[in-house]
Amino acid sequence: MLRPKKKRKLLPRIFAAIKRELKSPNVYGLQWGDPDIVRPLRFIRDRYVLPYVSSEHTAVEIGPGGGRWTRYLVDFKKLYVVDYHAEALAELKRNFCKSSMEFIKNNGTDFPGIAERFVDYLFSFGTFVHLDAPIIETYLANMKMILKPGADAVIQYSDKTKIMAQLNESFSENTPEKMRTMVLNAGYTIREEDLTTMWHSSVIRFTV
Asked: Distance between CA atoms of 95 and 92, rounded to whole angstroms?
């Protein structure tokens, strides 16, 4: 989780940026890279997102921001977008408001209103890079309750073994070894790890 002082300074800037960017034709978040254009992000899109989108399945996105990745997920039969910040969800809803989508404000780690063993795919990019280990562990425990057996979860997280993460004060103290341990301790099976595509983070895919 963002540390208190950083959180107080960062969140007003985030919400101001969301409002400013949503007045333009661009999706908020693209200033951090457009997955249609930036090669590493395009790889993430093509390997970890698009192959899992199905009109027969249900998905969850944690921390959707302005919809940078949400736009690739809207073809799921049901898509839950989950965020702690009601303001962020309200802004997202202005751009994405399909009948198949449900916007959920959580307490920071839970999934209110999502039935147990109901979700086929879970994705989060740009959120877990800021979360400290206890928050990640709680999230992992809670998401296990909503994931179907065999469901895929894909999470990007801070990788402090990389210099660009070390230089980013908002990134949490995490590494592939730590993340791997948390995922395994939560009872998941790791299917894939990508430690090289992103310059400041890594990606892990796991199943129940």
From this structure: 6
The helix-helix angle for 86-95 and 4-22 (nearest 10°) equals 20
- The helix/strand/coil state of 46 is helix
Instruction: Write the burial class of residue 128 (CB in 10 Å: 0-12 exposed, 13-18 middle, 19+ buried).
Output: buried
> Environment class of residue 34 by beta-carbon count within 10 Å: exposed (0-12), middle (13-18) or buried (19+)?
middle
Chain-centroid distance of CA 59 in Å reads 12
- For 63-114, the pLDDT digits (tens) are 999 999 999 999 999 999 999 999 999 989 988 989 999 999 999 999 999 9
Its domain, for residue 91, covers 4-207
Residue whose token pair is 């962020």: 88
Query: What is the spatial distance between Cα 117 and Cα 46, in angstroms, rounded to a whole number?
Result: 26
103: CB partners within 8 A, 6+ apart = 81, 89, 92, 93
Name the phi and psi angles at 91, rounded to 5: -70, -40
CATH code: domain of residue 78: 3.40.50.150
Question: Number of structural domains, the chain?
Answer: 1
